Amino acid sequence: KQWYQRRVAITAGIPIDTLAFDYDVMAEDCDTSKPPDDGAYVNGLFVDGARWDRAKNVFAESTPKVLFDTMPMIQMKPMKKLDIPDRPIYWCPVYKTSERRGVLSTTGHSTNFVID
Q1: How far apart, in whole angstroms, are the C-alpha atoms of residue 92 and residue 112?
Q2: 25 DSSP β-pair partners
Q3: CA 2 to chain centre
Q4: What are the backbone dihedrals phi and psi of residue 67, each rounded to the nearest 5 degrees, phi first?
Q5: For residues 42-58, b (16+ Cβ closer than 10 Å) or e, as one string?
Q6: Mapping DSSP to helix (H, G, I), strand (E, B) and coil, where does residue 47 land?
Q7: What is the pTM of this model?
Q8: How many angstroms separate the Cα of 86 from the Cα of each of 58, 73, 91, 104, 112?
């Protein structure tokens, strides 16, 4: 994430401390065969203890006896922090595995931690 932010900031001439990512959960039928013009697609994420309601495009209560749900493709779009639309956002950490533990790195994060 950080190397990409640096590249976008330099290319766009934007100070890196004003750059952030906006996220769009993509529809199931969207064409992701080509890379997006800006940003990146993220695939293969799972939700623990909840599910993604594909009809309403929101998080919802998990289905009984189902612990994990797959997320649709997500597009990460770099933009100025001030340009990100004001809307309800659910901030959550992303881990490499379902185990929320790992070796503590020099940054203070678990080595299993990816992004929040």
Answers
A1: 14
A2: 74
A3: 14
A4: -85, -35
A5: beeeebeeebbeeeeee
A6: strand
A7: 0.74
A8: 16, 22, 14, 34, 30
pLDDT attached to residue 108: 63
Cα torsion angle, 94, 1, 81, 72, sign:
negative
Q: Tell the residue number behind the tokens 């749900």, with chain if given.
A: 69
**Tokens standing for 19?**
């750059």
Strands (E), the chain: 19-25, 40-42, 46-48, 50-53, 58-61, 68-70, 74-80, 94-95, 113-115
Nearest 10 degrees: Cα torsion 42, 45, 51, 56: 10
**In this predicted structure, what is the pLDDT of residue 87?**
87
Return the number of other C-beta atoms located less than 10 Å from residue 39's C-beta: 19
Token duo for residue 22: 């906006």
CB atoms within 10 A of CB 77: 17
